[in-house]
Amino acid sequence: MIRTDHHCHILPGIDDGADSVETSLAMIELMKEQGVERIVATPHFYAHREKSVESFIRKRDEAFRAVKNGSPAIRNILLGAEVAIENGLSRLPDIEKLAIEGTDVILLELPYREYSHWMSDEIYDISCKFGLKVVIAHIHRYLDYYSKSDYDEILSAKAVFQVNNEAFGSFRERRFVKKLIKSGLPLIFGSDAHNMKSRCPNWDLLLKKADTALIDESDSFIDKHIKK
Length: 228
What we know:
This protein has about 230 residues and is α/β, with parallel strands linked by helices.
């Protein structure tokens, strides 16, 4: 099984993640020490801020080249994006190109605001229109925004739900995640690491708190969705 971080911000200078190549390499090295063998780089994508998907991809690829030039031995980094759900996102040209490279998987981030039905509509439309498997980022981070009925609607989507390792360090979030596990919903894990200080890689926490079988199931997720 390849230990996989499905959500992190290691690419330098493209979002609020790593601020330099040096920080990127330090984050990658710490992940390696914590047993991570495959990293999905998911810089933030906000449709209203970007000129186009293509221009974002050029910036992302340039940031990745900087990391590779800093340490040519680095392997097994897959490029993707953390795509903010906005009203009309499913009509954006080329959105399918933001899927994790080589797969049919796209990581979507819900807005930090009161739930509206158009959010579920966008998830459904992106899944159906582009034939993508939707992953909802850090599903536990909306507890202050969503009611139980709101969550019921989101969790009824045909999606996979990503959990940040940090959730296992919070009583409230850990309890919520345990309910998801008990209900049998599909979950995958990621550090959502942004730096080496306030939001550093924290796989040591997950490995200490979570069931090994759950982590193994998460690690197998990407391989099941590689395009053939």
